[in-house]
């Protein structure tokens, strides 16, 4: 892979109670690139994504074996604070979820709870600019975020995520609730943000993965429904010349 890696996954297994959701996943995530995770519904893509910021910890009965190294540190090692991990690995969800507060207070929220000592107004403006939203909302900062369109709400959630300067941004189907115009804006935004952040996106939309990502992981499930990574590599190669027949069958629409 070109460039250095920021995350290294080694022999990752994950269970919900007695059900094994992920089996023996090992791969590395390149720094300052967009990595897409594709595959059929139910194969564990979102579960895998949530392993990077320990969101699965919040689910009763969830447990993980193996390692997820973030800048060389195993985030599942004893004594590691999940809250600290989540401040460095931001997340944008499938459905835009702005807080029922003003646009300004949405972006400032994480800064405030982290005790930010700088100029709050400048930090909010900078985040909104990086999320390609400033020009649309600069005169509406103290209006409710809930009055924005779906696409604007999703860009606001991205601004909220990047305000606290994470190293990695996770995006779980960030465009699935948006129209094609809003989707294109989010895709353009992902490409520009990759200059400063590492982005990992789960998507059902293979055309989107082909458009925005540098590397792609194809996941499927085994007979017991445990999710596995079948193939992982540069996006252009995986789509043009898949090495595994299961990958080829999926991207050509023969299954999934």
Descriptive report:
The protein is an alpha/beta fold and 256 residues long. It has a domain at 5-97 and 167-251: Rossmann fold (3-Layer(aba) Sandwich), CATH 3.40.50. The chain is 34% helix and 27% strand. It has helices at residues 45-50, 82-88, 103-113, 120-130, 134-137, 150-163, 180-193, 206-212, 235-240, 245-251; strands at residues 5-16, 19-30, 34-38, 62-70, 73-74, 89-92, 168-172, 198-202, 215-221, 227-234. A six-stranded mixed beta sheet has the order 6-7-8-3-9-10. The protein has a four-stranded antiparallel beta sheet with strand order 2-1-4-5, with no helix packed on it. It starts with a strand and ends in a 5-residue tail after the last helix. The model has no long low-confidence stretch (mean pLDDT 94).
Q: Could you give a short description of this structure?
A:
It contains 10 helices and 10 strands. The chain is of the alpha/beta class.
Key attributes of the depicted protein:
256 residues; 10 helices; Rossmann fold; 10 strands; alpha/beta; six-stranded mixed sheet
Question: What gyration radius follows from the Cα positions, in whole Å?
Answer: 18 Å
**Separation of termini?**
28 Å
Order of helix and strand elements from N to C terminus: EEEHEEHEHHHHEHEHEEHH
**What is the average of the pLDDT values?**
94
Count of beta strands: 10
In which range does the helix fraction lie?
Answer: 25-40%
Tell me the fraction of residues in β-strands, as a range. Answer: 25-35%
Q: Which regions contain 5 or more consecutive residues with pLDDT less than 50? A: none
Shape: globular
Name the CATH architecture of the domain at 5-97 and 167-251: 3-Layer(aba) Sandwich
Overall SS class: alpha/beta
Looking at the structure, the CATH topology of the domain at 5-97 and 167-251 is: Rossmann fold
């Amino acid at each position: 892979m070109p460039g250095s890696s920021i995350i290294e996954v080694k022999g990752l297994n994950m269970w919900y109670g007695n059900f094994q959701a992920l089996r023996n996943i090992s791969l590395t995530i390149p720094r300052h690139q967009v990595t897409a995770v594709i595959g059929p519904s139910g194969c564990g893509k979102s579960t895998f994504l949530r392993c990077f910021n320990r969101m699965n910890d919040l689910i009763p009965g969830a447990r993980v074996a193996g390692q997820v190294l973030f800048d060389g540190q195993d985030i599942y090692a004893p004594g590691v604070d999940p809250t600290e991990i989540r401040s460095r690995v931001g997340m944008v969800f499938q459905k835009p979820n702005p807080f029922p507060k003003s646009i300004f207070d949405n972006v400032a929220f994480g800064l405030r709870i982290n005790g930010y000592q700088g100029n709050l107004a400048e930090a909010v403006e900078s985040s909104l600019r990086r999320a390609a939203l400033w020009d649309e909302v600069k005169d509406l900062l103290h209006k409710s975020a809930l009055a924005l369109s779906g696409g604007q709400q999703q860009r606001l959630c991205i601004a909220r995520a990047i305000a606290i300067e994470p190293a990695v941004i996770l995006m779980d189907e960030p465009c699935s609730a948006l129209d094609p115009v809003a989707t294109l804006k989010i895709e353009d935004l992902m490409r520009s943000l990759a200059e400063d952040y590492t982005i990992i996106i789960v998507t059902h939309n293979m055309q989107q993965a082909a458009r925005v990502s540098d590397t792609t992981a194809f996941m499927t499930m085994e007979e017991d429904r445990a999710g596995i990574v079948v193939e992982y590599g540069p996006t252009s190669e995986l789509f043009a010349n898949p090495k595994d027949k299961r990958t080829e069958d999926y991207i050509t629409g023969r299954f999934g």
